[in-house]
Target: 23S rRNA (Uracil(1939)-C(5))-methyltransferase RlmD
Amino acid sequence: MEKNKIYRAEIIAYAGDGSSIARIHDMVVFVPGGAVGDQCDIRIVKIAKNYAYGRIERIFIKSKNRIEPECPHASKCGGCCYWHISYEEELRAKSKKVQDAIQRIGGIAMEPEAVCGSDSIYHYRNKAQYPVGIKDDEIITGFYRARSHDIIPMEHCLIQTELADNLAKCVRDWMTEYHVAPYNENTRSGFIRHIYVRSGFATGQVLLCIVTKSAKLPAVGELIQAARQTVPGLCGIVLNINKKTGNAILGDRYITLWGNDTLEDVLCGNRFQLSPAAFYQVNRAQAEKLYEAALQYAELDQTKTALDLYCGAGTITLALAHSAKEVIGAEIVPQAVENAKQNAKLNYITNARFICADAGQAATHLAEEGIRPDVIVVDPPRKGIDQATIDAIGAMAPERVVYVSCDPATLARDVKLLGEQGYQLKRYKVFDLFPRTFHVETVCLLSRKDK
Model:
């Protein structure tokens, strides 16, 4: 195989990052924008030891699953990767992605239950994070090009809410009028880094968070007035101060400019006060289905105790509390723990308590206390569960472990590690909370092998 040479090949599969796969001269070639069944000319752009990267130069036979992208930014923006295939094909790709990981990494040949697709693939996100920059002397917001910090300017996004897009424009216009400069990563000059909008789909409340390098901004009163006129349901405007370099969007300091520093939403029958930092699933309707499956897998009753690791604002914890004798939630973010405690009070739930610690520390501490939960629920970040948490779960020896995952590879790895602790995968189900992107959620049930 030669770099820059064009080869004719068929797209045969999808990769974990949403790109497609062809095989040329017995080598796997990763190709963005392909659909299984496409027959195309592929130019090789990079060759590694065991694989290569290519780009499609021409499609001479289109896949039956290929459609015309509805998003005009689909080929440039790094946010979505599946606008060019049917939603049914996307669901098949995501289900197979999880199944392949479970088999290849976890060593378990098991089919998932029927994939749960989203009722809507448009404007489903309740959280928008717009990077702010400047292009041709104009302030822009949008989303990053794949694998870069190059902002693709965007007025409207098909997966964000129109209210969020309108607020982004409002802040851009205010910045232009009052000469508030965007933050420049290279020179570390300027002020505004991100515009962060969180929406409560059940309540209609909207919270605007502006991520900036400095607490001192001009014309704050004019910003408040413009934002309130743009979104009548606005419940608060918060500044987040982030002086650090790196990819983290939010800093540690918050200043409330107007209204509340949280918004309220309803999930699985519980009301939640959510701060900008609190974890909350971005697709509320699908999250309810995801958590219902987790509750079904947990099989709790009023005699059982549950431990919810990585509990965030307590969304899963409080759902578990309705069925359990007692639930303990653990979370490392102090603000999220305070949110969780407030949310328990807000819903008059008295059988849930929360501790501030990372999952490994919390699980180890509870194991040392002699607490033996009947069920442990984990909903970790993309990196999965660390070894200390795996060991502590094994030491507490719950009857069941319910694993909610946003990354199939780390899920499969952890399922294998939990197997070494005496747990066997019984069933799992794939949920699409992120239509048109490569992200996917999975709920797994693991039970003790001696049960």
